Amino acid sequence: MSDHEHSSTEKEARRAMPGRPWTPQEEPRQDALRRYLAAVAAAASARTAEETEPAPGTAKSEPSSATSATPSAPEPATLHVRDVMQVPAVSVPGDMPFLDVAHTLAREQLSAVPVVDAADHVIGVVSESDLLAKAAVMAEPHRHGPVGRLRQHRLYEKGHGDTAATLMTFPPVTVHPAERVADAAWTAARARLKRLPVTDYRGRLVGVVTRRDLLRALIRDDAEIRTEVESLIGQHLLDPRAVEVTVDNGVVTMTGTLDNALAVQLLASVRDIDDVVDIVDRIEAV
Fold first, then answer.
1. Are residues 28 and 143 in the same domain?
2. Do 88 and 196 fall into the same domain?
3. How many domains does the chain have?
């Protein structure tokens, strides 16, 4: 990922930051958001490179004998939506009454739920905001002022619905189980959705994937990063215990005493590990 992409990602994350002071939990959340956006951007860049084809009439370059003789390193497995989606998915039928939909969301602790027809095809999504529109119309059935009617016409009309099908938002934004996690992340980001129904090729509901599911798939947690760093140290040092490693929100802290040249090489290798945000160098060179 280029420095320009990193800069753009951080600027985008900063735009979403609140003006009020952060809570103790906010900074780690923002760090995770930056890592998430960076991972999505990196995946998109890789996809663009894969899809780039040579111009017509241009022969593809053949690998040199030296290159072909060297076995290539195994590429990391590509995660797909089917690998991270939640099964089974909670859904409601189109004819479910408003109050029953509200009870379903409350019972399942969900902010939105897919609406399906008799054949389990996803026909829309009903969310808390849809239910709030209905509740507002029930509380105040008559609006006042022509401006309010023009600006809120669609929301107001939806609020008169009594079933999931009349309250839902449609057409639904869905993803397929075979889609890559990075592509699903872009879909969720563009649509500003926290949950995406997963459907088969016939549009039938087979699961649901959340932004948290996508985040966990795109960004490894600190324990996994530490395991890879320690494995890398074991390849460089006869005694891996010579360097102590801690990881906090993707920031790797390395402490110990090493030969200067070896320390430089080791730090460079760790910096290249995916999801390492930064390195705190506390190695004493000798």
1. no
2. yes
3. 3
Beta strands in the chain (DSSP E): 92-93, 112-116, 122-127, 195-199, 205-210, 243-248, 251-258, 278-285
Return the pLDDT at 177. 96
3 state DSSP class of 199: strand
Burial class (CB in 10 A: 0-12, 13-18, 19+), 189: middle
Structural domain harbouring 11:
1-16+24-49
The answer on 188 and 143 residing in a single domain is: yes
- The pLDDT of residue 71 is 42
In a domain? residue 57: no
The token pair that represents 99 in the structure block: 């109050």
80: number of CA atoms within 13 Å, CB side?
6
pTM of the prediction? 0.57
What is the pLDDT, as a whole number, of residue 143? 56
Token pair for residue 149?
Answer: 């009617």
Half-sphere CA count of 114, side-chain side, radius 13 A? 27
- Upper half-sphere CA count for residue 200 (Cβ side, 13 Å): 7
Q: What is the pLDDT of residue 61?
A: 46
Distance separating alpha carbons of residues 135 and 98, to the nearest angstrom: 10
What is the distance between the alpha carbons of residues 260 and 280, in angstroms, rounded to a whole number? 16
Spatial distance between the Cα atoms of 1 and 165, rounded to a whole number of angstroms = 44
Q: Averaged in consecutive runs of 10 residues, what is the pLDDT profile of the chain (286 residues)?
A: 48 45 55 62 59 52 43 55 93 94 92 95 92 73 52 57 87 94 89 93 95 81 86 84 87 90 88 84 86
Residue 154 has a pLDDT of 56
From residue 267, give the alpha-carbon distance in Å to each of 64, 143, 252, 254: 31, 65, 10, 9
